Amino acid sequence: MAKVTLDGIRKVYPNGFEAVKPSSFDIPDGEFVVLVGPSGCGKSTLLRMIAGLEDISEGALSIGDRVVNDVDPADRNIAMVFQNYALYPHMTVAKNMGYGLKNRGVSKAEIERKVAEAAEMLDLSALLDRRPSQLSGGQRQRVAMGRAIVRNPDLFLFDEPLSNLDAKLRNQMRIEIRALQRRLGVTAIYVTHDQVEAMTMADRIIVLNGGVIEQIGTPTEIYENPASTFVAGFMGAPPMNLLKAKVNGAGTAEVTEGLSFPAPAGASGDVLVGIRPEDLEIAEDGDMQMEVKIVEELGANRLLHGDLGGQEFSVSVPKQQEVTEGQIALRIKSGEPHVFDANSGRRL
Ligand code: ATP
Question: Where do the ABC transporter domain residues begin and end (predicted)?
Fold first, then answer.
């Protein structure tokens, strides 16, 4: 087990591209941290620097109490699980799982004991003699995890480990990974572009955008208090509505005449008012008039898309609520609208 500290870590690729701007954060011992962001935001680069697969251009990386910038990947006591599993096709499950130990000169008996223990934990005991081609995708992913576990690492790194699995298996595996990490108590850093994975698995989420950390927080903090319009739009499905508005002399953010929201003290000029689709309800006396153009059936609820104050807007309602296209009245049922500066995108 180990804490991990990044102090001003930066990555500039040889072609001069700055993929990660100077970034700092601490991960306490035993925490499960998810790095999330869109394609190209720098999350794999950051993970690969922690793994030692990519040089660090600037800053200090510590695992435990040791600065490891110049330590070989093999000597960092890290285990990495990739999306393509990276299993040896000609080896059995047992051999795949024990391979790293064999290379380190661990005795045969000890390897067998550790592999059996990990296989038991991962429900792989009956499959130890099979080859990877005789396994399902989920089972292969479990073998990849088994290979990581037997090495007793200080730190688990996951690089989009579930992206090759179908939706149902992905849901199941994310629960398994989380349960396993809790049970082992190992610090884990998990990279994904999937905000649902981030929300459901993380103790803390780090949202990256264009090589910059936009926000670090628990899933609840990130969902309830997004630091920027980027985080507001990226985390949460369907995404938060963002209405263009102007703060007037009375200190309210006005979208159009008759449609305004409270603005925080100090807000001025152009702002964006953020309201989550699930924070609204249909109410006869509601003071927000929406024109519903499309009703999307999602099973447990319905998503209504249309127009509010001349801007695109969506509302989520329970499946019990019958809705047809046309005019409806809405009110906010929970929380306060979020207000962001229209130029910087930062929360006000
Ligand atoms: P994805 O989800 O698509 O894998 P990512 O967030 O993991 O994206 P990275 O792979 O870390 O993104 O890449 C970050 C940025 O750095 C991208 O713009 C990418 O094109 C660039 N990049 C990656 N590797 C190199 C390289 N060897 N040389 C130059 N630029 C690179």
Answer: 4-235
pTM of the model: 0.91
pLDDT tens digits along 110-119: 999 999 999 9
Q: Please give the order of strands across the beta sheet that includes 311-318.
A: 280-282, 326-332, 288-297, 301-308, 311-318
Number of structural domains in the chain: 2
Ligand 1 touching residue 43 (CB < 6 A) = yes
Q: Domain for residue 346, yes or no?
A: no
The ipTM estimated for the assembled molecules is 0.97
Q: Which of 18, 45, 158, 160 to mutate to test the pocket of ligand 1 (most atoms within 8 A of CB)?
A: 45
Residue 202 CA to residue 225 CA, distance in Å, equals: 16
Q: Are residues 213 and 301 in the same domain?
A: no
Q: Establish if 53 belongs to a structural domain.
A: yes
Residues spanned by the domain of 193: 4-230
Cα(40) to ligand 1 centroid in Å equals 5
Using a 6 Å cutoff on CB, does residue 45 contact ligand 1? yes
Do 45 and 163 lie in one domain? The reply is: yes
Read off the pLDDT of residues 109-168 as tens digits, 9 standing for 90 and up.
999 999 999 998 888 999 999 999 999 888 898 899 899 889 889 999 999 988 878 888
Is pLDDT of 84 > 80? no
- Residue 48 CA, closest ligand 1 atom number: 11
Residue 114: give its domain's CATH number.
3.40.50.300
- Is there a contact between 311 and 296 (Cβ–Cβ < 8 Å)? no
Confirm or reject: Cβ of 55 under 6 Å from ligand 1: no
Amino acid at 170: R
Last residue of a domain, one of 230, 265, 286: 230
What's the pLDDT at 275?
A: 96
Long-range contact pairs involving 265-269 (C-beta distance under 8 Å, separation at least 24): 266/348, 267/339, 267/341, 267/348, 269/341, 269/342
